[in-house]
Amino acid sequence: MAEKNNGGAGKFILGAALGAIAGAIAGKFVSKKMEEDGEEIEESLEDIEDDIEDAEEKVENMAEEAKEKVEEIKDKAEDKAKEVKKTVKEEVKKVEKKAKAIKGR
Question: Is the pTM of this model over 0.85?
Fold first, then answer.
């Protein structure tokens, strides 16, 4: 009977050793996969960061272009206002001249 117990203990130890080895191998694969996933995530985050920087630059360029267009429109509006003011003054002088001519008759 003592032989059966010794044989069982040996199998248990062998099984435990094989289980430990299998666990170590599985752990190594899982660790490697997690490392690869971590590297992929890091690369993705770097790509996202680059995309954000590109978007910021585009927005800044668009804002600058919009500012320039607003300034251009403002300048054109001021020029047109001056032109209209001049035309109105000329027309007022004509009307005043005609009014004086009519009054003087």
Answer: no
Q: Is the pLDDT of residue 39 over 60?
A: yes
Q: How distant, in Å, are the alpha carbons of 62, 80, 98 from that of 49?
A: 20, 46, 73
Q: Which residue, among 61, 60, 79, 82, has the nearest Cα to 71 in the 3D structure?
A: 79
Encoded amino acid at 99, one letter: A
| DSSP H or E stretch at residue 103 | helix 2-104
Q: How far apart are CA 4 and CA 2, in angstroms?
A: 5
Taking only the tens place, the pLDDT of each residue in 57-95 is 999 999 999 999 999 999 999 999 999 999 999 999 999
The angle subtended at Cα 66 by Cα 61 and Cα 68, nearest 5°, is: 95
∠ CA(41), CA(44), CA(47), 5° rounding? 155
